[in-house]
Amino acid sequence: MADALSVIPASVLRYLSDKLYEKRKNAALEVEGIVKQLASSGDHEKITAVINLLTTEFTYSPQANHRKGGLIGLAAATVGLTSEAAQHLEVVRGEFIIFFNQIFDALCKLSFDADANVQSAAHLLDRLVKDIVTESDQFSIEEFIPLLRERMNLLNPYVRQFLVGWITVLDSVPDIDMLGFLPDFLDGLFNMLSDSSHEIRQQADSALSEFLQEIKNSPSVDYGRMAKILVQRAASPDEFTRLTAITWINEFVKLGGDQLVPYYADILGAILPCISDKEEKIRVVAREISEELCAIKADPADAFNVGAILSIARRQLDSEWEATRIEALHWISTLLNRYHSEVLCLLNDIFDTLLKALSDSSDEVVLLVLDIHACIAQDPLQFRQLLVFLVHNFRVDHSLLERRGALIIRRLCVLLDAERVYCELSTILEGEADLDFACIMVQALNLILLTSSELSDLRELLKQSLVNAAGKDLFVSLYASWCHSPMAIISLCLLAQMYQHASAVIQSLVEEDINVKFLVQLDKLIHLLETPIFAYLRLQLLEPGRYIWLLKALYGLLMLLPQQSAAFKILQTRLKTVPSYSFNGDQLKRASSGNPYSQILHHSGSQITEDGDVNQDNGNVPNGINFASRLQQFEQMQQQHRLLAKSQAQSRNSSTSFFKEGPKAEPRWPPTSYINRPRSRSSGRGPGQLQN
């Protein structure tokens, strides 16, 4: 230091730390001249002493004016140095590179100095250092990157400008491979896209655009490490950051090929939320990426993780955005079609979520879920399991049955065969322990059966129950569970043209059965009788002599209706249009005795009664259906419902202490036996039930 003091006058050192910039500037010019003179004379030891003095006594000083003078003094000394001095100096053009990280770190700190003049001096030195680095062939990018990566986390706007400037300069040097180290500072650049300063956002965007162009032109890129960063940034709350990240992902999917296969799940997890982004540009790019990923047919053997992608899609089914849920379902459907066996092995991971999705507020979502369920249910065991769990969901959530029941049942009937669906549901409901729910469910199924266009073939089959074996099997399969609801049984009999049995069912009703719920269902049936579905029945009223039991059944319903009700007036008006017909004594006797099968007509080789029923000379068992046993089965089921209603009434009238005991534990549902129990195709009943 003594050597430095001997060559730099005390006045120059004093002015170098003066508060006035002009005095510091003039002092720096003096330093430049001194260094030039020392360099020309080859006195390198004194030059080194001057630089050390400026560094330790001025640049590192806690005093702002000293730091200002030190920086401008170093800048002047750098300008004054010549190439001849390089072999003897640590800080000179080119050869000072070995201390680059220390100098860079100091410049980084000084770039956000509170004093504007300090910053100005730091910028001057920064430009000089950049010139030296760009001209040097000794700069080590490998040693510099860790320092750069560490500094990229700083939020100070001046530091950010300083860093982006260096990244841009180094990237412009042909011999420095900044692209190879891009994963180390890519996240920092993306972080700057949301900076409050427009200038910083613009500089970061410009640098990223340049790197993306280089990636497109480079034959070797580490897509994997950068993909992880982009996935995180795609979820940024900043719109511009999301758009930039999703744009990069789009290019990566196009360029990355097999490198990105292990990251497909992460990428999908990033783009699915963007499908519903408020910004249209982001939505468009996200959908394009989804389509591109979906078009790639990867092999699970090549690190393609079906389970991971399925898990991502499942989680997105809980998204608040409909578009995202729909896209997630498209992915599940695609995976199921391409990797059916793999997905079935993972079914337990998604089944509950798919069932929950049936309660979605969007009809489109529900329909897509049903398509997936139908695809899964191609397997017989999965088919029964689907319907068992579906009934269970309806049971625990009656609102689901009310809001979505018709849509779900109708769609499943289209996708899985209506007859198969209804027979299986009937078998499940036949063993339902909750009688109230069973009644509600049967009424819902009956209404769908009577009104849905998707079930028109099923209705036609039921109309042939007395002359067609398949129709008879269907009638028998439905009958056991339809017994839960008197009106459902009556509707089924009217649909199957089993009018004598319908009349018998009506006659079997007792006082407890005629309640408000019954009358509401009866009102619905009366209105349905006026729809095109029952046009054939109304036309049969033109032949009252042939359809005596139809008339008796309809008059029986009329007698159950309150006279002031709209349904009473509708049915009464309809019956008034029936042509007058004189019944002979035998017909009246049969109608009153309940045996319509003694008087027959010949039709196509079969013996048809006046109600269109077939008599196969086996007494009261037309087409193998034992109606006496069926009526007994109905009465037994109704007796169970009466006992339940009586028990519920007693509970309501009991002391309030009963309710303080807390609710009873619900029985486990669905029982394993329900899933594994075989169903008889001909009877639709389990062991111990009534036979045909």
Automatic annotation (TrEMBL):
InterPro entries: ARM-like (IPR011989), ARM-type_fold (IPR016024), Vac14 (IPR026825), VAC14_Fig4p-bd (IPR021841). Pfam families: HEAT_EF3_N (PF24987), Vac14_Fab1_bd (PF12755), Vac14_Fig4_bd (PF11916). GO terms for biological process: phosphatidylinositol biosynthetic process. Transmembrane segments: none annotated. GO terms for cellular component: endosome membrane; PAS complex. Keywords: Membrane, Repeat. Residues 643-658 have a biased composition (Polar residues). Residues 399-578 form the Vacuolar protein 14 C-terminal Fig4-binding domain. Residues 643-692 are annotated as: Disordered. It is found in: Endomembrane system. Belongs to the VAC14 family. This is Protein VAC14 homolog isoform X2. It comes from Durio zibethinus. The gene is LOC111281870.
